[in-house]
Specification:
The protein is 32% helix and 15% strand. It has 318 residues and is an alpha/beta fold. The chain folds into two domains: 2-103 and 290-309, 3-Layer(aba) Sandwich (Rossmann fold), CATH 3.40.50; 105-282, Rossmann fold. The strands form two sheets. Strands 8-7-6-9-10-11-12 form a seven-stranded parallel beta sheet, with helices on both faces. A five-stranded parallel beta sheet has the order 2-1-3-4-5. The longest helix is centred in the C-terminal third of the chain and has 19 residues, at 291-309. The radius of gyration is 21 Å and the shape is globular.
Length: 318
């Protein structure tokens, strides 16, 4: 019987939110709730598996790892884009890579959960109430009539824009290829430049794909343009915002606050400075973590495995 490893199943949801019976007569499924970042330990764990299911980009599969997995024939990754996999190395090693659908709804909803949490001081007020602390210790920031600046207006950014409009916000957007016509379709105005958007916005939210042009797009100089009363939200990719520059801005009170769902290292080490940064609302990369999305990920992972075993792979990447 073939063996399948399901990695980084932190909530042990893989086998409860999907029906694996279509493949269990041919495949032994083993789930792991822990995270191994050390390549030697990971290679040892996966040495006896023919199939691996990995969630989003929680783990990298570089050539150095794929070359050490001679039994591996199928790698299933959730979503139809994964920058953590060396596809050339997979092909060279005879490994088929398949993906799944992924909804843009969960990250849109989390973006607004974080933005509202920042604006209304939800976490400190909740903590104070539970600890019999001060009754009302923050003064909330208004959304209505304020400017929401969106860096990126794709599938997710455009949906974030519509929610902003529903709150009565003035929505502006910028990206390197964004046109005025495309911005207007989403109900946003096109900012003349990244610098103008940062300087004029009360809330800035990042919705860009990570690439050579966006890595480090928001650094010390860009953060210095923001209002001291402004907030920054990043649910996209950590490397778009310079971590050290953001830490300095938060510690020095140069912006009112930030919310992050993505980090340079995940899971975040216990002694990481972001864990104790002031003015920061942080969540452990929950953007895509919902019941419906997980049901899609793991349900289609089962479909991918079944199709592969039947000799007709589906949703092949890249």
């Amino acid at each position: 019987m073939l063996r399948c490893a399901v990695l980084d199943d932190y909530q042990q949801a893989a086998t409860t939110l999907a029906d694996w019976s279509p493949v269990t007569d041919r495949v032994e499924v083993v789930t792991y709730a822990d995270h191994l970042s050390d390549e030697d330990r990971l290679a040892a764990r996966l040495a006896d598996f023919d199939i691996v299911v990995t969630l989003r980009e929680r783990l990298a599969f570089p050539a150095s790892l794929l070359d050490r997995l001679p039994r591996l024939t199928l790698l299933v990754a959730s979503g139809m884009r994964n920058a953590a996999i060396d596809y050339a190395a997979a092909t060279r090693n005879g490994v088929t890579v398949c993906g799944t659908a992924s909804s843009s709804t969960p990250p849109v909803e989390l973006t607004w959960a974080l933005l509202l949490g920042l604006a209304r001081g939800i976490v400190p007020e909740n903590n104070a109430l539970r600890a019999d602390g001060p009754w009302q210790s923050t003064v909330g920031a208004d959304l209505h009539g304020r400017r929401l600046g969106l860096l990126g207006l794709g599938k997710i950014g455009s949906r974030v824009a519509r929610v902003g409009l529903a709150f009565g916000m003035d929505v502006v957007a910028w990206s390197q290829n964004l046109t005025e016509e495309r911005a207007e379709e989403a109900g946003a105005a096109l900012a003349a430049s990244k610098e103008e958007l940062l300087a004029d916005s009360d809330f800035v939210s990042v919705h860009l794909a990570l690439g050579d042009r966006t890595r480090g797009l928001i650094g010390a100089a860009e953060l210095a343009l923001m209002k001291r009363s402004a907030y920054l939200v990043n649910t996209s990719r950590a490397a778009i915002v310079d971590q050290d520059a953001l830490l300095a801005a938060l510690r020095e009170g140069r912006i009112a606050g930030a919310a992050l769902d993505v980090f340079d290292t995940e899971p975040l080490p216990g002694d990481h400075p972001l864990r104790t940064a002031p003015r920061l609302l942080a969540t452990p990369h929950l953007g895509y973590v919902t019941r419906a999305n997980y049901a899609t990920y793991y349900g289609q992972a089962v479909e991918d495995i079944a199709a592969f075993l039947d000799g007709s792979p589906v949703r092949v990447l890249p």
